[in-house]
Amino acid sequence: MYGDASGACLPFTSATILLFNGKRLIDNIGKLRQILVRASLALCLLAQLAGCASNAKVVNEPLARQAPESSYSFKAFSEQFERGETSFLLAFSGGGTRAAALSYGVLKALNEIVVETQSGPRPLIDSVDIISSVSGGSFTAAYYGLYGRQIFDNFESAFLRKNVQGALIDRLANPFNWFYIADRTEWAINYYDKKVFNGARFSDLHVAGAPLIFINASDIAGGVDFWFTQEHFDLLCSDLSSFPVARAVAASSAVPGLFAPVVLRNFEDCPTVNRQLVEQARAAVAQRPQLELEFEGLESYADKERRLYIHLVDGGITDNLGLRGIYAINQLSGGLASRLKQSDIVPPRRIIVLSVDASTEPEYEMSRSKQVPPITKVISAISGVQLHRYNAATVSLMERALREWRDEFSAEGHTPETYYIRLDLGQETDPQKRDFLNRIPTSFSLTDEQVDVLIETGGALLRSNPEFRRLAVDAGLTL
After folding, report:
1. What residues pair up with 62 in beta bridges, in sequence order?
2. pLDDT tens readout for residues 40-68
3. Which residues are bridge partners to 90 per DSSP?
4. Which ranges constitute the DSSP H helices of 149-229?
5. Helix or strand holding residue 42 (H, E)
6. Which residues pair with 51 in a beta bridge?
7. DSSP 8-state symbol, 208
8. Helix (H, G, I), strand (E, B) or coil at 171
9. Do the Cβ atoms of 135 and 316 come closer than 8 Å?
10. Separation between Cα atoms, residue 127 and residue 123, nearest integer Å
């Protein structure tokens, strides 16, 4: 029923140094090209290990004045979603095109499911307030934020069914590109900008009624999440509105060892900028010590001499589910219940968190032999264990957050219903299909069959999920 899930496998997972197998990456090409690609990859790795470096391109612009109220910020969007009867958050994990296709399948299902509202029936997707994403999931989130329902007409041809990985390999086959990892990063950004996002800037994302697209990367020096919102750019005295969406998505998926970090300039102090987030965060940390690391990261940007440049890599290093950042900024900015009380806004009747996790289960191939496994398999296994353990901690954190939000509202005489809907590939009940899904590589080049199965699986997992079915009954959804 399902074909071979192997094939071109360029791992786009976090915290991993990658070696490519030229034979698996390249089919039906001449031996000379195979030799060139293998040599280029080996030399790239040697150059990095030897400490060869090149200057990164920096394009973020200084903030000439305080960011306007309409800036692409959590604050600007929070008033929009807090006034609705439902607060609906989507979170898309990392995992290359596998993650992008699975999350796209969930979006398709949300577009087909109908909810009754005071103004009549409408697709459930219109109720989504925030999409928080990391790595591969950021491609789907950003595309939907820019183009809305046009995603269902164009995204598959623009990205899901494109051999992005093959284009990168062609680039690496050129010996002049062997030693310059920063150039490879810029090439990827240019490709995303021209072929996927059509030169869009963050100002293009600010569309009335559209959800906030919360793209997450990792500040590698600070060891904390970095969020592409104006609140974070305020701390750098920089303007997010002119920043390319493609560059943010590239930062969110910049795997260390394969891509150089995306670099931002931390500009000199701008007295007019609003540093309210830091002050609110300082008060929040006193009540929630677990937020101290995030607060220290935010506060560190004030040190303009020591933190002159901010280096951003794959968001999966700090949070592969895309949930921690949105939890942190909500709590550090005062908390949902507190903001609603201050604004005299009626709390929502329902709070929904829908997490789409495209990570795969660990394989035990090395356990079948006493042979020493290749370094690539060892590194992949180590990073996989780390991701699964960290994901479990993130799930626990979000479950606790939902209980806290419900309790805070209950203390004010209003108890919203909360729903934590978790979707992951391990929930597939057909053993043959689950095995097929688990063998789909973390790559930016999948077969049409793999893409088709992932899209179908996203919708099927959503419709069959017990927590989602509870929501469907409570909210009167038409599945």
Report:
1. 238
2. 445 444 444 444 556 789 999 998 766 56
3. 131, 354
4. 151-155, 164-172, 181-191, 202-205
5. helix 31-49
6. none
7. T
8. helix
9. yes
10. 8
**425: nearest Cα among 141, 14, 106:** 106
DSSP string, 132-150: EEETHHHHHHHHHHHHGGG
Amino acid at 56: A
Inter-residue contact 217 to 324 (CB < 8 Å): no
Taking a C-beta distance cutoff of 8 angstroms, is the pair 259, 186 a contact? no
Angle at 215 between CA 214 and CA 220, to 5 degrees: 130
The pTM (predicted TM-score) of the whole model is: 0.84
Q: Fill in the amino acid letter for 65.
A: R
Backbone angles phi, psi at 373, to 5 degrees: -70, 155
End-to-end CA distance of the chain: 27
Spatial contact of 472 and 109, defined as CB atoms under 8 Å apart: no
The total number of residues written for the chain in this structure: 479
Contacts of 203 (CB under 8 A, 6+ apart): 72, 241, 242
Distance CA 223, CA 307 (A): 13
Reading phi first (left if > 0) and then psi (alpha if -120 to 50, else beta), residue 149 is in alpha
Write out pLDDT tens, residues 201-211. Answer: 999 998 767 89
